[in-house]
Amino acid sequence: MDDDAPDAAPESPRGDGDDAGDDDRSVGDDGSAAAADRSVGDDGSAAADRSVGDDGSAAADRSGADDSVADTGSIEEADGTSPTEGGVDAAEADIPADVRKYERFTKMDGAQYDRVNEFLRDRTYITAREWAIARLCADFRTETGVEMTKIGENLPELVPFMTDTYSPQAVNQARSSFEDKVTQAGATFLYGAMSGFFTADELDDLMYEVTEIAKFLLEVEGVDLAVADELDAEERISSVMRDVRKQSAELRTEEVECPNCGHTHTPDSAE
Q1: Which residues pair with 60 in a beta bridge?
Q2: Which residues contact residue 208 at a Cβ distance below 8 angstroms, ignoring those fewer than 6 apart?
């Protein structure tokens, strides 16, 4: 025991069979007892001594680590920022500036992939994944090609309804699938327009319907279309399709021949 311990009882000898947990006790003036000395390890290190105050309460002799804990108990760092805030800042710093500024799909905040995918599959050949990645490939195209790595790594940041990152190979696969479906759909549509299956009025109605769907997707992407611009675009598209139908009718003229009598006629004369 320390020599300056108050009113300490002399240390009693300890037998080989004594329990190591039975420490000697020191008694204060009021008769309260506190653990005085702790057992000393084989290496000579001793646990912290305890002292008893005049009021009988035991005041533990803490190490300087307690003060250190008290000083650093706050979650704020020395510079006034919390670790969480620092982590967010660090994470945002890793996001490229053009990704942070990208606002194509802000109207889709809170949308679920399944709902978007269902809408597209009911009206088009493409999936939500192919739509989103095709848009991104068009927007993140440089002189050397499409930034597929950037698109894939930041996909959840760029498109709200996409929750997983993609590898460059997966991005390229989705883009290729989009191209294939557009080619197939385009061939189907153009054949319908050129074959004479649709009358001029039916073709106009068809063009109006598909144009409305395409415009809706553009508006969701953030394109702001004025009414005058919409009407002008519809008129130009209709004009082009009428010209396509007319030119295709001229191409079919040589083939429009009755297999029985050999009489030839133009498609317009049969309508």
Answers
A1: 50
A2: 234, 238
Structural domain spans, the chain: 7-60, 104-252
Bridge partner residues of 33 (DSSP):
27
* DSSP β-ladder status, 58-60 and 25-27: unpaired
Length of the chain: 271
pLDDT digits (tens, 9 = 90+) for 177-219: 999 999 999 999 999 988 889 888 898 889 889 989 999 999 9
46 to each of 19, 25, 37, 174, how far by Cα in Å?
A: 18, 16, 9, 69
Distance, CA of 271 to CA of 260 (rounded, Å) = 20
Residue 183 Cα distances to 131, 172, 212, 248, angstroms: 14, 17, 20, 19
Encoded tokens for 244: 């396509």
β strands within 205-247, DSSP E: none
pTM score? 0.59
- 46, 23 contact by CB (below 8 A): no
